């Protein structure tokens, strides 16, 4: 904390991991002796750069770009790019740190990294987004590569942005390689990558509920966000017979007690991905409740899937969810629950899964996209989806291995942190002091 005094989000992420790991480290002093933890919290490399570009009026705009290359002990750096005005070094470092553990849990050979910019793609034309992406890649390209660092999407970076970034990388390097994941299916992408984080989240929830002989069928589910993760999580919940009653964006949330069915969800896909509109328009079209400036946690539900952004469930929200009967909380977003909220869930011993386990499906299928690119082959939808389900099941088993308590309840926070740590720490020990 003394070294980076203002990096609140990074400290929050590290503190959670250290609290989980402490007993394990005391039982395994070799990791302490070799200062594995001290090395894990120090990024291998941080790149920060200027991103100048011209807007549609011909004005010069200047943004800040980042890439945090956190840890490459088990594979090349891998993690998304986020374009959002709140992006700063603390957020980049927290996301990169979490990514190291998440990628390890997938059992695929991927190290951890994260990057992005404080650029806001909202209300920008396609041409402006393209010029920004080209400028961003004109610096980033020299630091990344298919065997070095393979970025993907995150908030504000979807198929459109990955396309512009890939086009510029290819032009600068004069080579067609799998340097980014989340590519279009026609040019090296993988089937099921767009769906992977949301689907993987719901597969993970299925594994959690299985232990209690329950399924999602007939359950009321509150989802926050209305972007990539939220949309596909909602789709899979509906497929499995659950009733999705909320969605949100940064301006407010909708509550549709009748449930968001397939037709209504199709409208959300069109609204958010094509028209780039606001979730308020859903309430206007279907005549349901909309509240500005609030998140959906006051709504009664059995399952809550926060899929928007960090720190969107606070202690009071957690208490409200519990009081209203919520029994399962699984994080589609990264660190959406504050430490105080997590504490409430753990104290109540409900089924609570942190993002590094529950939302690992996205990076897992990114890993599968890399494998397909290396083989210059495309797997079928069934093949990729089957592998995704197996990976989510394996992550769940790993959480059980390290997080199961004597009474049978699984502390998924401990399970994910220790499970993710062991492989990376073993590799770091083997590779010497580097
Ligand atoms: P999108 O940009 O597609 O969607 C983000 C959604 O969250 C939008 O509805 C957005 O609303 C809302 N949102 C963003 N910032 C805020 C904020 N500060 N306050 C309230 N709402 C906000 O991103 P994704 O769906 O890809 O990502 C969502 C979360 O999932 C992030 O935490 C991301 O790190 C995590 N994640 C994503 C993965 C992926 O594969 N995409 C993989 C693993 C984790 P608005 O439209 O108003 O901005």
UniProtKB/TrEMBL annotation:
Q: Which family does it belong to?
A: Belongs to the Glu/Leu/Phe/Val dehydrogenases family.
Q: What GO CC annotations are associated with the protein?
A: cytosol
Q: Name one Pfam family in it.
A: ELFV_dehydrog_N
Q: Which GO terms describe its molecular function?
A: glutamate dehydrogenase (NADP+) activity; nucleotide binding
Q: What is this protein called?
A: Glutamate dehydrogenase
Q: Which organism is it from?
A: Gaoshiqia sediminis
Q: Which domain of life is it from?
A: Bacteria
Q: Where is the signal peptide?
A: none
Subunit details: Homohexamer.
Positions of the record's site feature: Important for catalysis: 154
Chain residues that bind substrate: 78, 99, 102, 153, 366
Keyword list, A-Z: NAD, Nucleotide-binding, Oxidoreductase
Which Gene3D superfamilies does the record cross-reference, listed alphabetically? Glutamate Dehydrogenase, chain A, domain 3 (1.10.285.10), Leucine Dehydrogenase, chain A, domain 1 (3.40.50.10860), NAD(P)-binding Rossmann-like Domain (3.40.50.720)
Q: Where does NAD(+) bind?
A: 197, 228
Q: Which residues form the active site?
A: 114
Q: Does the keyword RNA-binding apply?
A: no
Query: Which part of the chain is the Glutamate/phenylalanine/leucine/valine/L-tryptophan dehydrogenase C-terminal domain?
Result: 190-432
The record's Gene Ontology biological-process terms are: glutamate biosynthetic process
